[in-house]
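Project standup — Tuesday

K.O.: blocked on the structure for the chain from last sprint. Re-posting the sequence here as requested.
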Amino acid sequence: MPHSLNILRYIPIRVPSLRFFTAMTSSKSASVDIWQPSAYLTNHFHDLRTRPGLELLARIQKTLGPSSSSSIQRIVDIGCGTGQLTREIGRSFPHAKLVGSDSSGNMLERAREQTSKMDDQTVAQRIQYQQQSMDQWSASESGFDGEQVDLVFSNAALHWTPVESQEAVMRQWWSQLERKENSPSMLAVQIPNNFRAPSHTLILETLRDGQFCSDESEVHRIWSLLPRVHEDGCTFYFHVLRKLGARMIDTWESCYNQLLPVQSADLHPVCEWTSSTALAPILNALKDDEERKRFKQLYSQKLYEAYPAFDALKGQSGQQVLFPFKRIFFIAMP
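H.V.: unblocked you, prediction finished:
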């Protein structure tokens, strides 16, 4: 198969600094904010994107126990995006003050708009949003009156930090947790781990086959914009937490066999899925809209070989594709 996973072993990748990602995704520091809320939470992807975060939230509640609904007082949601999960966290912890932090002005604008429309305004009044890069977040600058937090929650954000910086970012988050006897606190994180699947390896193949780059060094430069997790997966994150002195660590990986509807024969649904996430910085790096359109067409052709369409399940219309998607989860308590 042309999308052999072995291709990843021979590519010298120079990962850009975290400052690059911050500048690229922050509307305060760059003219282009690549994050588009309407594309990220399309109706047919909404439940699939929010499910892992909701399952992480359920694990937090089960681990902390029923008393946590009153004992958890200060929460930060790092990489909160449109605030969908921030609002769910607010409903789950009715006595907590929440800060949703994100680097994207576009996402935060949507988050504030949706929060203002909540039926339960008692939850909305406990939530504020803050534009900040994930490596710089601190409780002292987030309206918590200098106090540390009881829960650091982050769903699908840490992988946007270069792999060599992820331990330092986790250390920063960990340092913000409250440490009081008989007052539990927790770090809870979910990150995608599909970067060795065809959905991602075919991005590199498309860059090369479509001659979108002037030479191989440009291929590597653009390819390095793809977010990643450590190659050791859960094991790496476990040992980071162990070194930080966690007294409880739970790490696990789940594979979601996602059914995606085919909207167009020219646009594979996996292309639509990645265009608003991992593929976004790749598309942004191409020279113009015509090149982006051509990239999507070629990428979609390759995706239909890797993830073929089939008639929809009984009672449903059209066609679908099966898109397995792996995710890493971890929770830890100091």
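K.O.: great, moving the ticket to review. Residues 21 and 211 are 25 Å apart (CA to CA). The first strand starts at residue 74 and ends at 78.
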